[in-house]
Each structure stands twice: as structure tokens, then as C-alpha cells.
Fold this protein.
Amino acid sequence: MSSLIARIRWRLVGWNILIIGLILVLAGASVYAAVQRSLLDEVDSNLLARSQQALPFLFPARRTDDFGQTPSAPGPNSAPRPRTCEGYSGGVFCVALAPDGSVRANPQEVSVANIPWPDSAQPTFATIDLGDGDRARVLLRRMPDGGMLVTGTSLEPVETALHSLLLVLIGGGAMGLLLSLAAAWFLSGRALIPIQQAFQQQQEFIADASHELRTPLTVLRSATDLLNQHREEPLEENGELFDDVRAEIARMERLAQDLLTLARSDAGGLELMTAPVEIETIAAEVVRRTRPLAQSEGVELALHGLDGGDSTVDADPDRIQQVLLILIDNAIKHTPSGGRVDVSVRRHGQQVAVEVADTGSGISPDHLPRIFDRFYRADKARARDMGGTGLGLAIAKMLIDAHHGHLQLTSQLGSGTQATVSLPLVPQRAVTLGGRLGELAAHLPHPASRQ
């Protein structure tokens, strides 16, 4: 089982790391793309502003004189036309190209070999290679005379920032995966604890059920072998063997019924026919039915009622009888001859409690935490001699939980054991409306009894 748990744990960790890794990759890619787009938008906005500044210097507007004529070109001794644009610092460059592709102005002397000509007259952004691995972002603007103004800037600062961001994302992602691995390993171990306990309980349940079935089957096999050897003898001469066979068959039938009840409860298929019923009346009926058993064991069985108080609960009368039969039967079996079993019905606020107290030998504190486990018996040898299977208290606890009640068992060695069943009282108005239904349900056979 340990190897199976280890494989499941590694699978859980692997899936967690895979999912977290995909989330980190998608998140990192989204952050990287968003930052890259933001930086390029900022560069494009800056290029647009610089292009507006350089336009009047590199492509001055044509002027006409008073007669509508264009002034002649300045002579060699005339003042030179300014060919610089403001704010060239910060890696921004400007290039003016004539319609034939020749350079009109290139103050920064950048390479113009890779500068494309846009097809549209609208300003166009592009990324070009200036050589030596230097990439630049450029704004291309066509002029009315067919020329082009190129405004660009180096992308090295942007690429450096993106490279640093990429390293941070990779480092952070790797650290996140390591932390996720440790967290996934820890959480998977914690999550598998209930599964491991369930596997262990299942193995114990199968082993105990197999053991309980093996004992009557062994007796049946031995008895039938003896009957086979005396096949020619009358049945009356083998009456003891025949009684043993009947007893073991009855024991197996009880075990199968108990297992079926627990299986239905685990599958959520346990049916309860609830109605307002007097739990004191049910307790009195169970005491009446078990009093002959107590007398045969030499045990005094007494009932202490509410003296007229209300004890109406919303419950399935057959299931409550089953619970009280289990508790009283256990108390009688574990009380020595001359002892006493007291069944008391008490009210505690908005709840009514049925207490079954005996004067038996009690239960060790080491066994109390597991007393409601299936097939668990504090004294297995003694319980087997008494015909018990270790399922009674587990069924009682399951049935009380199904009624939204509470079953508690307290005990001290040498001082006896007390089992307390607590159920919520039904409001008086609900009692009036459902009283007749409860009386009818108490006299109807339960579905489990027809199987």
C-alpha cells in the first residue's frame, strides 16, 4: 500500500507542477508582451513628437514672393539653411531623403541601406537593422514632394529592459516552481492522509469480515462433514450438530444484514421513515422485550422515565428500537450476574436523552477512541464467545448520526459503562400535526424487515 500511496503522491505533485508551470508560463508571457507593447508604444509616441520637431527644419515649407513666384535658391554666399532638428540627444536620429532615394540630410550619419519606403502616405512605424546588431525603431513620413522624413531611435535600451525583465521572469518562475514543488509535496502528503487511513480501514474491514465469515464457515464445514459420516443415522441422533448449523447460519445472516446496513449508509441509500414519536414509549418497549434476556443472565434491568414529561422526537421508530436493542443487549452481555442495567429517559433543554448504564467491568481508556469502529472489540475473545461481530456500536452510531443526533459512550474500568443517545425534541405544533402519522408509522413494518 505504501508504494501505491507514493505513486499517487508523485502523480499529484507532477500534475500540480505541470498546471502551476503552465500558469506561470502564461502569466510570464502575458507580462512580457504587455511590457514590450508598453515600451514600444512609448518609443513610438516619442518618435512622433521628435518627427514633428524635425519636420520644419529638414523639410521647410515653400514660400512665394509678392508676385506669386518661388524665390530662387540661395547663392553660395547666402546663409546656409539649418539642417539640424532639436533634441537629437538620447539616441534619436533624423534622415531626410529625396524622392529618388538620395540623402538630403543625415546629421547622425546612420546607415540608410535598410530603410524601407512605405506604400501609404500615412506615417508608418517599422523596426530596422542599422548594422552591427543595432536595431532601431523608425517613423517613416512621406512628404508632399515625394521625399521622406525618417525619425528613429535605437532599441538597445528597450531590449536591455526586456532582457532584464525576461531574466526576472525566468528566475521568479523557477523559484516559484521550486516553492510549488515543496508546497505540492507537503499538501499532497496531507491530502493523502485520509485516503491512506481509508485504505487501512478498508483492509482491516476486509480482514475482519473474512475472519468473521471464516469462523461460521469452519463450523459449518465440520458439522456437515460429521453429518456426512453419519448420513445413515436418524436426524434426532445428530440434533446437536444440526443446532450448530442453524446457529452458525443465523450468525452469518445477522452479519450479512449488518454489512448490508452499513453499505447502504455509506452509499447514501439508508431509508428513514421519520415521524414524531415518543422515545420514552420506544424505550419502554425495548426494555420489555429484553427483560427475559436480562433475567436469564442474572442481570436486573430497570427503566426510569420522565414522569409525564414530553419526549417526542422526529425519528424512525424501527431504527431507534434497533439502536436501543444494540445498547441494552451490549450492556446485559457485559454485566456479570447480579449486576444491574438502568435505562433512563431525561430531558436536557431542547433535547431528550436515553441513557443505558451498566455495572459491568467497563472499558479501558485505550479502547474508547475506537469503540465505534467497525469490527472493533475491546475483548475479541469474549465478544466472539457471546456471538458478537463488532458491528453493533458502529451501526448504532451510524443510525443516530442519520437522525442528526449524538451517541456518546463513557466508561471507567471497574465502574461500568454508560451510553447516551441524544435527539432533538420536536416543537409542540409539529407534534400535534404529526402525532397520528407517528402512531401509524410505529405499527408499519420497516422495509429492512421485509428483506
